[in-house]
Design a protein that fits this description.
The complex is a heterotrimer of chains A (467), B (144) and C (480). Chain A is of the alpha/beta class. Chain A is built from 16 helices and 19 strands. Chain A starts with a strand and ends with a strand. In chain C, helix 15 packs across helix 16. Chain C is globular, with a radius of gyration of 22 Å. The chains are: A alpha/beta (467), B alpha/beta (144), C alpha/beta (480).
Amino acid sequence: MDCHLLIDFGSTYTKVLAVDLETETVLGRAQSVTTVDSNIMIGLRNALDILFQEHPEMDESSISRKIASSSAAGGLRMIAIGLVRELTLEAARRAALGAGAKIVGSYAHELDEESLQEIEANPCDLIMLSGGTDGGNKEVILHNAQALAELKKDVTILVAGNRVVRSKIKQILQNAGKQVVVTENVMPEVNEINVEPARAAIRDIFMERIVKAKGLDGAQTYVGNIVMPTPMASLRAAQLLAEGTEDEAGLGDLLIVEIGGATTNIHSVGYGYPRDGHVVLKGLPEPLAKRTVEGDLGIRYNAHTIYDLAKQSLRDNLSALNYPLDLSTVEHITQEMGVNVGYVPDDDAAYLLDTALAKTAVQVAVERHAGILREVPGLEDLIPVQYGKDLTHIKVVIGTGGVFHYGRYPARILAGVLYEAHNPSSLKPKNPDFYVDQGYVLYGAGLLAGIHPTKALRILKKNLHQL
Amino acid sequence: MAEIDKKTIVLGTIGSDAHMIGIWVIRKALEAAGFKVIFLGAVVPQEEFINAAIESNAGAILVSSLYGMGPIDCEGMRQKCIESGLSDVLLYVGGCLVAPAEVAKKWQVVHDQFIQMGFSRVFPNDTLPEDIIKALNQDLRIAE
Amino acid sequence: MNVRCKRISDEEFYTTRKEVLSQWPTGKDIDLAESVAYRQQFPEKNCAVVMQKAKENNQIICVPQFGRAPFEACLSGLQYMEDELRGFNDGLIFNIFSDSYTRKSNFALAQKGLDRSIKDGATALNGYPLVNYGVAQTRKLQEAIKTPLILVTADEDSRLQLEIALASGWSGYSSRTLTEVISHCKNIPLEEMIRHEQYEDRLAGYYNERGTPVLSHTTSNLTGYDMAAFHIIVVLTQIMMSVEQGVKHILWCHGINMNLVQDVAMMRVTEKLADYYLKQRGHHDITLTSTIYSYLGAWPPNADAATGLIAWNSIIGIMAGANAIFLKCADEAYGTPTKESMASATKMCKQLIRLLRNQTLPESPELTLEEYMIELEVRAVIDKLFEIGDGDLATGMIKGVDLGFLDTMFSPWRWLKGNVLMVRDARGALRYLDHGNIPVPQEVIAFNKEKIADRERRDNITADLNTLIQDVGWASRLKD
């Protein structure tokens, strides 16, 4: 047995996943409430105790290696600053999301007094400053660097903009006593994104500074390094699953749906280029592995927002499930969910409501994530123009997260990803197969992928349950 | 006002890209003449030209308009440039601005219409790349 | 898993097959075993057999093209051509093309067009929608005529079309990875196109292995303005990829540039190197035949002038020793080929075959030099592809595109670097003005420069972009 322990310090729960690399199987899993306020190790110890209790054949000595991710203590909070909203700001946002960050503020063009005050007051772990192609606009990013130099709070600034002025910017910020990291421009040329260096830099900053700043370093003696934010682990796993390795086939382009209490996240792997040669592809190119986070679609904290935002869809979904109660009761219950952190469904109606909420959240989230197809008038006909990814050909859709773990109608929930004939401009999957990551193995595979990609892939594939 | 990069040119087509060759040739010619070309391809809305020009500090925006759709698509572009802080950027327009049969008859009218809209220069369909380069060098005051 | 130049596994083939067949309801009617049995009923009415016989008997096959939406119109067009072209000992193959919607896998719109065609009695589609018609109906087409049919299509994904065509008794298709992406596609990554083509080749291999041969028409039709060596590289890489899937009968094809010496040299070098590379890779049982496709650059918008081009293209093919000639017709500039116009063009070609049979272009120092230079360049690039691919051709091709080792002009494909510039020399042959990143040997670069210098002297110009623009229209200009 070659047992590796894959740990996640989640925002609510600390999870442990024990895998055996020799047999490429999951040995066991457990979780306990995350204890970041006191001592992070307490939650981990509790989880390990449960694990070893349920699996007496395992103990501390059987573990040959530990790897950990974290989204504890609010996760990785970032503010993104760029020049044009649709260009460098968007590129910066994509870099941040792909690194597992939570974007708590976005600013385009020159920062004014009011924006700076907002940034000062907004608790964040990292500010990402971009703007201007390499050799392009300098004025705005320089202006913004000067503005950030005036911030009183101590926060790391990642500079990922116009190469020509980055030394100057570093100097300006360092002279003001700010922590600065410089990386490659997220958009070196118009319509050319370059997010990997920024993602790597964010990961490094996370490991070196943020982990300590959040009191997570207490775990490092036991765990070794906390190597990445949790969402980055999931995205890594998604990419591994899609692409495969030299020795193990991947599943091809795929979509992962992650429904949580606070957010609903969508990961797509695949370029999503138009299939039809007549379609003109426009807009900033999307990264191969794309992650979107919808902070207003968590099915607990935002149950009521979902109700408000997508009432018709929710109503349709409830009625398709033969939900017994009326809409005003639903309104009341969803309001309650937002404040009752410990809510769990306890009867059939409650499970149905969760299913409907989850499906609605998925519908909205995937629509936001997927590309769109518009028709622009040409000389004699309409020219089809695509923005974003064409997901219509995706064959693999995977659900992960609590509602798939404890819930009852996973296929119904995942049906929310599907293409709808009455809304043909939203390029959602037309005919995929549905799977569930029942054992919450995804993040673990992402962590393991760094050292044993083929084994991580095989373990993940074994734990995907096709619906 | 931001200092522009005289040698950076934004190039694109408003309208479909049925014939690549024309704009391909202009791009090659500009690059051979030492310009940096930000090539946006076809079906480019005004905002995309302008955003690209902002990020890259371009000295000129070259709009190729095909099949007589010009005036409708180009309307308001100079105003948007001004709003975006690009009041000094050169705006050139060219291509098949009106149907070929009409060119001889209506050219002066069409030309003036585009100048009124705020374009710096208006080029007819049979323009050679070197004419465009000459104009750019002159207008951007680049020494030959 | 990354694509490789090797036979795809049965598992991958059959899994992909399920997906392909589900693209339209007619897909479920296809039964491979039954199709094999059906095809075995007419072993002679087969493109591969016809080409084999032609080569053995020193015949030249004419391949006119046709396609209509109402079934009756399509059939009557083919029958008309068969009647008109009777009494000529050399054989025929008919090239049927599918319509644009079918090519784009938009079977729903093809259905609409088909329904309208049937209602109005006139074709509303610019080709035969074989997927919508399905196997049972499409079989009737081949059954009603004596001439074997080859499917010619384009764009990214023709797998379902091929399934239908082969199950319906047609016996040829176009095998076209690089040539397709370069001439027609915008966004599809090469890796994906390779997968599509490997499937098609594998399907052909399936039928080959069960005694019902399929002809793989391996083309280099490209943009119309491509260097001879590049044409050859496209064809040879495809041949090498295809044979791994079980393809046995290859009709390789070049879109010609219309300089006699350069085109003949291109054909001869292809024949030599195809043989060389196949033997080197252990394939000794592949039947190779050759053909030409008409000039793919701009054509004159005038029927008489176009007829001149058709004649010239055919002559070049004959003098190059091609085993078949693919034909265009004079009114193609205005619309889809009519049966009359196609029959006309074919008759003209047949007359030329009668006159020119056995008059291949004689050896000459000019021809030898051209062959030498072309071969040098082809070998250099192919060797490079194997090198960067660590011995795997598919990997080499993908990296080759990325690095600009595989490159040409005017392609709509976003992944091609497009750093190559070409102009015509004093005799109309294409020469590099700029070879981009292609690893062209020094000797060849010098040769190209020399040839351009000749033209510059003759015309008193400096060859530049303006020259290139002029040369684009060299065949389509009606005035000097």
